[in-house]
């Protein structure tokens, strides 16, 4: 670790020592090889949750991620923007410890002037900050562990987590599990209906690994107008694509980013207390507004003559057809993609889908076995007429500790031991999982919920430990005292 960052790490540990109250351990000793909390996902949310639990003296925990070191999260995997979309001053993983803030990290590494002149944090730099954070806090991250399935044992008192690891399948027992599995952690990245019929090599999604060099000289269509659609289109043009046409369903480009409104203590700290109908109205509006491309993503492509934008062009059909450039089309093997829209037919050698994700718990292999038992908003709440929202309806109807609820009481008791900290928690709990902006309030609320669940479950044991507590604070010999029996 470079000296300035090692020094900052020392300061962070010192600040944690200054704040270390109450230091008294409270968790009962754990049974052999049983974790108190297993966290699935070693991205920012999983790491900050582990840090938060440690600060509450819940130490018997581990973070599991299927990715190898350097492959967790989105920042250095499939994100293709140059900088974060979030303003640089937004704090989150630090949980209030100054030396752990992004600002402290970049100031220590690059200097105060560099920080002042920095517009937004680079996405690879954000991952470097998270790597430093995990190393500084010595967080228990186990790479190469893919959660395959979850079962409950001992009458539902424990979870049996089955992992695929480089050493083969392993089972880890845990009292509670946190799903910190990201934007698509409660569903999947969306490949809308017409595209399923096209050859896989011709349809790419912004959330997959893409060989942009192989797209050089090719004609592309990008579907969608979100930030990722623009960032992938820009990356393809920068890699030498011949042309890129963006087809957008909406007639007008979204311009307002609701996240900037959400970055306030009112919404972030108190949303969770709203009545259901207001939660629905706030989040439905936020989901429908969606996020516009940041100005810098628009600027990356707007002046490029190879870029073409077509609004009001929902995809009505997708097929393969003979390419008029048969023989000259480098990789087309004589065929091209044809997309039909109200604005006409558009053809290309390949399509990149910037169509986001959907919530559908059954699509997650690790949840599939009990997904039908999970209570969803569409089961628990009926929106007023005209306020329907499939995305809201498919969101899990979480308890106040982020845990799943049963659709049929008693049918799947393990659910209350599974705490959902993905983007799908937004409707129930406000912005919390899978966003930097929601971490400051979301992670402590999750940690508090986990501690409350563990405390309540062990309440009798805690009462017993109180009753057995006999640490004398007054140790002097007092000759005036009468014999014990006299009491
Ligand atoms: C392209 C892109 C850009 C974004 N930009 C911003 C931004 O600028 N600002 C912002 O606030 N938010 C942004 N977000 C949203 C969000 O902050 C990020 O998605 C962020 O990565 C969320 O962190 P996370 O830890 O919740 O999930 P991730 O970082 O996605 O981490 C989840 C981890 O879970 C692991 N995992 C998943 N399933 C399993 C399994 N079954 N077993 C084991 N491990 C598993 C994955 O390997 C991954 O490492 C962006 C999202 C995307 C996709």
Fourth-tier CATH superfamily name of the largest domain: FAD/NAD(P)-binding domain
Poorly predicted segments: 327-331
Task: Give the CATH class of the largest domain.
Answer: Alpha Beta
Sheet with most strands = 7 strands, mixed
Span from first to last CA?
62 Å
Helix/strand-derived category reads alpha/beta
CATH architecture of the largest domain: 3-Layer(bba) Sandwich
Q: What is the radius of gyration computed over CA atoms, rounded to a whole number of angstroms?
A: 26 Å
Number of strands: 17
What is the number of independent domains? 2
Dominant shape: globular
State which percent range the strand residues make up.
15-25%
CATH topology of the largest domain: FAD/NAD(P)-binding domain
Q: What's the mean pLDDT score?
A: 95
Hetero groups: flavin-adenine dinucleotide
The tally of helices reads 15
| Portion in helices | 25-40%
Description:
The chain has 487 residues and is α/β, with parallel strands linked by helices. The protein folds into two domains: 290 residues, FAD/NAD(P)-binding domain (3-Layer(bba) Sandwich), CATH 3.50.50; 129 residues, FAD/NAD(P)-binding domain. The chain is built from 15 helices and 17 strands. The strands form four sheets. Strands 1, 2, 3, 4, 5, 6 and 17 form a seven-stranded mixed β-sheet that branches. It has a five-stranded parallel β-sheet with strand order 8-15-9-10-11, covered by helices on one side. A three-stranded antiparallel β-sheet has the order 12-13-14, with no helix packed on it. Strand 1, helix 2 and strand 2 form a beta-alpha-beta unit. Helix 2 crosses helix 14 and helix 6 packs parallel to helix 10. Flavin-adenine dinucleotide binds next to helix 2, strand 2 and strand 4.
């Amino acid at each position: 670790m470079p000296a300035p960052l090692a020094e900052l790490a020392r300061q962070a540990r010192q600040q944690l020592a200054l704040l270390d109250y109450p230091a008294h351990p409270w968790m009962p000793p754990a049974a052999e090889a049983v974790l108190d909390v297993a966290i699935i996902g070693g991205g920012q949310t999983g790491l900050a949750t582990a840090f938060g639990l440690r600060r509450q003296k819940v130490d018997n925990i581990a973070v599991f991620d299927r990715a190898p070191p350097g492959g967790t999260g989105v920042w250095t995997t499939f994100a293709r923007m140059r900088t974060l979309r979030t303003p640089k001053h937004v704090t989150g993983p630090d949980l209030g410890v100054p030396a752990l803030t992004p600002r402290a990290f970049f100031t220590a590494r690059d200097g105060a002037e560099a920080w002042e002149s920095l517009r937004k944090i680079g996405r690879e730099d954000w991952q470097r900050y998270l790597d430093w954070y995990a190393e500084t806090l010595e967080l228990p991250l186990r790479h190469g562990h893919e959660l395959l399935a979850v079962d409950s044992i001992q009458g539902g008192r424990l979870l049996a987590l089955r992992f695929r690891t480089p050493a083969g399948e392993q089972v880890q027992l845990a009292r509670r599990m946190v799903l910190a599995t990201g934007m698509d952690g409660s569903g999947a990245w969306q490949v809308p209906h017409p595209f399923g019929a096209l050859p896989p090599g011709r349809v790419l999604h912004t959330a997959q690994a893409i060989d942009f060099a192989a797209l050089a000289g090719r004609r592309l269509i990008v579907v969608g107008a979100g930030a990722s659609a623009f960032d992938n289109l820009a990356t393809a043009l920068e890699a030498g694509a011949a042309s890129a046409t963006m087809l957008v369903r909406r007639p007008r480009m979204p311009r307002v980013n609701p996240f900037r409104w959400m970055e306030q203590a009112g919404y972030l700290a108190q949303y969770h207390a709203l009545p259901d109908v207001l939660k629905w109205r706030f989040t439905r509006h936020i989901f429908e507004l969606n996020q516009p491309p940041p100005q810098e993503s628009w600027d990356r492509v707007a002046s490029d003559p190879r870029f073409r934008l077509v609004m009001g062009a929902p995809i009505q059909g997708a097929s393969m057809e003979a390419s008029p450039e048969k023989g000259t089309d480098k990789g087309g093997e004589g065929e091209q993609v044809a997309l039909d829209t109200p604005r006409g037919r558009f053809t290309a050698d390949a399509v990149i889908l910037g169509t986001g994700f959907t919530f559908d718990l059954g699509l997650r292999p690790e949840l599939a076995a009990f997904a039908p038992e999970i209570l969803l908003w569409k089961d628990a709440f009926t929106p007023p007429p005209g306020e329907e929202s499939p995305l809201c309806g498919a969101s899990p109807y979480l308890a106040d500790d982020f845990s799943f609820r049963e659709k049929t009481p008693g049918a799947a008791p393990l659910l209350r031991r599974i705490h959902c900290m993905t983007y799908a928690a937004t409707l129930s709990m406000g912005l919390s999982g899978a966003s930097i902006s929601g971490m400051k309030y979301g992670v402590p609320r999750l940690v508090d919920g986990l501690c409350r669940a563990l405390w309540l479950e062990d309440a009798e044991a805690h009462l017993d430990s109180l009753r057995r507590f006999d640490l004398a604070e007054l140790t002097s010999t007092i000759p005036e005292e009468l014999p014990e029996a006299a009491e």
